[in-house]
Amino acid sequence: MERESRLAGTVRPGGRTAKVRAAVLQATQDELVERGFDGLGMDQVAARAGVGKTTVYRRWGTAARLVTDLMTELAEQSAPPPDTGGIDDALRANALSVLGAVNDPRLGATFQAVIAAATCNEEAATALRAFYTRRIAEWAEVVDAAVGRGELPEGTDGPELIRAVSAPLYYRLVVTREPVDEVVAERAAARALAAARAGAFIGAPGG
Amino acid sequence: MERESRLAGTVRPGGRTAKVRAAVLQATQDELVERGFDGLGMDQVAARAGVGKTTVYRRWGTAARLVTDLMTELAEQSAPPPDTGGIDDALRANALSVLGAVNDPRLGATFQAVIAAATCNEEAATALRAFYTRRIAEWAEVVDAAVGRGELPEGTDGPELIRAVSAPLYYRLVVTREPVDEVVAERAAARALAAARAGAFIGAPGG
DNA sequence: GGCCAAACGGGACTCTCGTTCCATTAATTC
DNA sequence: GAATTAATGGAACGAGAGTCCCGTTTGGCC
C-alpha cells in the first residue's frame, strides 16, 4: 500500500517537524551501525529518536525509505572533485574518497544498508542510481579537462573511466566481500588509467 | 535463534528427504523469479513445493538460508573455463558467461537474491565469497597459461585480472543498476586486457 | 515382513510488525 | 494572542510470520 509522505520536502520546514526528521535519521544511522539493515526496526528507531512509532510509520513507512532518506541527506554533504593536478592524482583521489566512505564506520554501515535496500526496493534503487549518476558526472568533468590538456587520448569516455575506477572497490565490498584498503584503491586507479592511456575508453557512448 | 539444519549434507540421501529438498529449491527459485527476495515467504515456498511449512522452517530456518542452499546447488552445475584459444577470447568468454548468467530470467533472479541475502546475512555472504573464490581461481589458471605462452607480461596476477573483468558488470548490476549487454561485457574484457598488457596487473599479491 | 529411528505434516499457539483511532501539542495566520 | 491547521504520540487492534506439539509416514536394517 502506497503512503503519501513528503520526506525531504516538508510543508513546514524548521520547527518540530525538522527536529523529528533529524532525530529519526540520526537514530537510523546509529541503529545501522549497531545492527545492520536487516536488524533495522521502526520501533527501535522511533524509541531511540524519542519519537512515537506512529510518526515514523507515517512519514517513512518502510525501513527502505528511512535508509533512502538518510542517503539523500548524506549525499548533499559530500565534497566535490578537485580541479587541480594531473589525471593520475584525480583518479587516485576518486578511489580514495570511495575508500574513505566505505571504511568509515558510520558511512560504511549506511552504504551497505543503502545497497541492501536497493536490492529489494525499487525506490531505494532509483535514489541510489540518481546519486551515482550525479557523482559520476561530476568526476567525468575532470576527465574531460585532462583530455583537453592532452593527458588522455581524444574521445576518452569520462563517465566510463570513472565507473571503471570504483567498480573494483564495490565489487570487493558487495560481491566478494574482501577487505578494501589503500593498496586496492590505488591499484584500481592505476589500472583504469593504464587502460585509458591505451585507448580502451575511446568510443563508448556515455550514460 | 540458531537452528541446526543439515541442508546439503542430509543424513539419509536419496528418498523422501531428497525429493523434498528438490521440490523446495525449485519452488524457491520460482518464487524468486516472480516476487524477488524480499517477497520470498516460507509459507508460499512450502505451499508451492507441496510441503509442510514446518518442514521448510526445520531444514532451512530463514529465507537467506533457502537462497544460499539454492546457490550452492546451482554453483555445481556451472561450466568450467575453456582451455583453448587466446587470452582475449578467454576474457571475453568469461565476461559473456557472467552476462549470460545475470540476464537469464531464472539465474538472474537467483543472482540478485543471493546478493541481497548476502547484504544482510553472514552465512549467505560466506557462501557467496566461497563461490567466487573458487570461480576466480579456475579462470586464473587460464591467465597463467597465457602468461606461459607469452601473451601477457610475466608476473601478471591472474585472480586480479579475472576480478577486473567481472567487476564492471557487477557494478552496473548492483550499484548503478544500469542494463548489462554484450557491448558492456566485451568492453569490460577489452579494458582489463589493455591494462594487463600495459603491465598494470604485475606485482599484486594474489588472493 | 516387522522394528526402529528419522523426517514429515497439520493445527494451534505466540509474538512481532504495522495500522487505525483519537486526543494532544506545536506552528501558522490574522 | 486567539483561531486554525498540521503534525505528533499513545494505546488498542489485526494480520501474518515463526514456533511448538504430537500424530503420521517413510526409509533403513535385521
From TrEMBL, chains A, B:
Keyword set, alphabetical order: DNA-binding, Transcription, Transcription regulation
Stored InterPro entries: Homeodomain-like_sf, HTH-type_TetR-like_transc_reg, HTH_TetR, Tet_transcr_reg_TetR-rel_C_sf, TetR_C
Molecular function per GO: DNA-binding transcription factor activity; transcription cis-regulatory region binding
HTH tetR-type domain sequence ranges: 18-78
A Pfam family per the record: TetR_N
DNA-binding region: 41-60
Protein name, UniProt field: Transcriptional regulator
Protein source organism: Nonomuraea glycinis
